[in-house]
Specification:
Blueprint: E1 6-10, E2 13-21, E3 26-36, E4 39-49, E5 54-57, E6 64-67, H1 70-73, H2 76-95, H3 98-102, H4 106-126, E7 138-142, E8 145-154, E9 159-170, E10 173-183, E11 188-191, E12 198-201, H5 210-219, H6 223-230, H7 233-237, H8 241-262
Antiparallel strand pairs: 1-2, 2-3, 3-4, 4-5, 5-6, 7-8, 8-9, 9-10, 10-11, 11-12
Helix pairs in contact: 2-4, 5-8
């Protein structure tokens, strides 16, 4: 993996930062970089992601990986900086770079890590990937939820298909909580497009009809859990499940299939 563009020098090592918006996760990667045989090399990497934060010893070599448990560690950036302040020599040794560990100026490293933490926190907010979709051409209300339906044509990526947007009013603003893009080529869905934007791509060999799968999740009672994962527990508390079931059966499902049929090639 290439060294990040934001580099903070700290004597025998430098700290490189970059924001990584992956398909199913995103967050700041903090690399500890040193010179090995005349070339810059990634010695340690801390991927402070939203969903599965973790870190690597010698990523380009033995690549020993460990998870960061957010339940006990709290914020991954704060946890990482604290570990580096307290255990960097030992962690470099574990990665196989004892010679670099012996060259560290620990006072300088501690001072620079304060700058690293400030920069990483700024990047985590300012470079966060979010996506804003249309609300749909047809919007069906079901209590505190709305289902927006539309057929999306995306010539720039040569894809098309029916989309279902799950919407609600949050703090006086209509927000898309979930999005299901049942496309022909790259079908996928989003948890929290406006905050976390976790993207999951369907395997169409296992799930040949993403629209059928999506509607089945709704009808089988998975919406509350999906909304929790998207980060909207307040919306979950106000759900009218009986009304949602009625609207799904009588309006959302038949209208979604009708829209798809109208655009069939």
């Amino acid at each position: 993996m290439k060294v990040g563009d934001s580099i903070i020098e700290a004597g025998a090592v430098c700290f490189a930062l970059q924001y990584r918006p992956l398909m199913a996760d995103q967050g700041v990667s903090l690399q500890v970089v040193g010179e090995v045989e005349g070339e810059k090399k990634e010695l340690l990497r801390f991927d402070c992601f939203d969903q599965r934060p973790h870190y690597h010893y010698d990523p380009a070599g033995k690549n020993a990986r460990f998870d960061i448990d957010k339940t006990t560690a709290g914020n991954p950036i704060t946890w990482t900086v604290k570990r580096l302040k307290e255990r960097l020599p030992e962690m470099l040794g574990q990665a196989g770079y004892e010679d670099i560990a012996k060259q560290l100026d620990c006072d300088l490293v501690t001072k620079k890590l304060d700058q690293v933490q400030e920069t990483a926190r700024y990047m985590a907010v300012s470079q966060r990937r979010t996506v804003t979709h249309n609300r749909g051409d047809v919007v069906i209300e079901a209590g505190n939820l709305k289902f927006g339906l539309e057929f999306r044509e995306l010539p720039n990526i040569n894809d098309r298909g029916i989309a279902i947007h799950v919407l609600s009013d949050v703090a006086g603003q209509e927000i898309e909580l979930l999005a299901f893009d049942c496309f022909e080529v790259g079908p996928h869905y989003h948890y929290g497009p406006r905050n976390q934007d976790i993207r999951i791509y369907w395997d169409t060999t296992a799930i040949p009809d993403p629209l059928e799968w999506t509607l089945e999740q709704f009808k089988s009672g998975k919406l509350p859990a999906m909304l929790q994962k998207a980060g909207y527990p307040g919306v979950v508390a106000g759900l009218d499940t009986d009304l949602i079931a009625e609207k799904l059966e009588k309006e959302v499902e038949p209208k979604a299939y009708a829209i798809r049929s109208a655009h069939a090639k």
